[in-house]
Amino acid sequence: MSDEFKNYLNSKIGKSNKNLDLLNSFFGTQELEILKQKSISVVGTNGKTSCASFLHKILMQNGISSILFTSPHLVDVNERIKINDENIPEEDISSYMNVLKNFETDNNIELAYFETLFLISSKLFLESGFSYFIVEAGIGGLYDTTSILNSDTVCITNVGYDHMDLLGDSLKDIFFQKIQVSKNPKHVIFGDPDLYQLHKNYMHENFDLNDDDIFVCQDTSDNKTNVNFETALKVFECIARYDELDTNETINKIENYSTISGRFEEVSNTPPKIIDGAHNVSSLEALISFVKNSYVISEFDVYLGMKKGKNIDEFMTKINSENFKQIFLIENDSFFGQADISSYQEYLESNQISFEVASMDDFNASKNPSILTGSLYLVGKYKKEYS
């Protein structure tokens, strides 16, 4: 990636532009119709990246081409766009800089970081001739940049409490925000059967959908990797039925697929060390369930670092209830957007919970079973420094 493009992209950090109608104009009418028909929007509180990544792998194994767009990246920005499960070459991303600059100049706007990469991935898909464009939403759905796709196919993994300042204080409000990533989907896949039952009437009353247009993953186990994989299979079942695709049932089993980087990832087995980007209570519960089901060892140290704006007290309440051997708070200024350690102190002190301040070096050097969690940005920084 050229230095010029790196500087251009880095200048987008912290920028915000939510003029979705204007972003629509980046594409022609025919391009928007192709994106609508061929994109698969993945929304939800947790499991979006895993589900979308599994779907990309399943399509590839069945000989079907797709481009995958996810966020955030862990180490390198080109992780966000994958073709055949490979990061797109950096020069392919850089080649769109002048097109984007001209669009900004013509419309007197400055694109945000996420928007810039989303528009690049969309153009890449349109020019590729590939079969599907799998797109993980950023935040929510209704006002998310990816909503300009107005996808025919929408997958909602689950709904939990996160980004309440933007999406609402109730699970019902959050669901409504997420499911409206498309104004008129033709097919919807639910990763949570209880979520579907709760909103079944809403789906039929507000969208032109029959029962055959809705697919529901029935896996309600605590193994969220399996749930995300089975949800991806449901998406594949949906598009295979409606697009009359040939499928290979023998390869559509989870043991044939690698896990997703930064999710339940074991970076050492002696002692066991796990890194995971859990950043809300529901994803933390999934991580804890994974550890309990995967290891005989019951006592782990936990190293925590969270981004600003997260519900730290709620997260810490769950941490405290699990009897971790020792709590370590990652020292300040260790990764982008990190919440200051003082954000934890009131909760820890009022609950008389002992803790120590530690670095990622300390986690890496520890001889004890340990977990590093709290943010994908933390996990990404660790992988960049130590992988």
Structure commentary:
α4 packs across α11. The strands form two sheets. An eight-stranded mixed β-sheet has the order 4-3-2-5-1-6-7-8, sandwiched between helices. The longest helix is centred in the middle third of the chain and has 19 residues. With 387 residues, the protein is of the alpha/beta class. α14 links the parallel β12 and β13. It folds into two domains: 254 residues, Mur-like, catalytic domain (UDP-N-acetylmuramoyl-L-alanine:D-glutamate ligase); 122 residues, Protein-Tyrosine Phosphatase, Chain A (Alpha-Beta Complex).
The major β-sheet equals: 8 strands, mixed
Q: Any idea what the shape is? A: globular
Q: What is the overall pLDDT average?
A: 89
Q: What's the CATH topology label of the largest domain?
A: UDP-N-acetylmuramoyl-L-alanine:D-glutamate ligase
Number of helical regions: 16
Radius of gyration computed on alpha carbons: 21 Å
The strand order across the widest sheet is 4-3-2-5-1-6-7-8
Order of helices and strands: HHHEHEEEHHHEEHHEHEHEEHEHEHEHEH
Q: Helical content, roughly?
A: 40-55%
The span between the termini is 21 Å
State the domain count.
2
How many extended strands? 14
CATH superfamily of the largest domain: Mur-like, catalytic domain
Q: Approximately what portion of the residues adopt beta-strand conformation?
A: 5-15%
CATH class of the largest domain: Alpha Beta
Broad structural category: alpha/beta
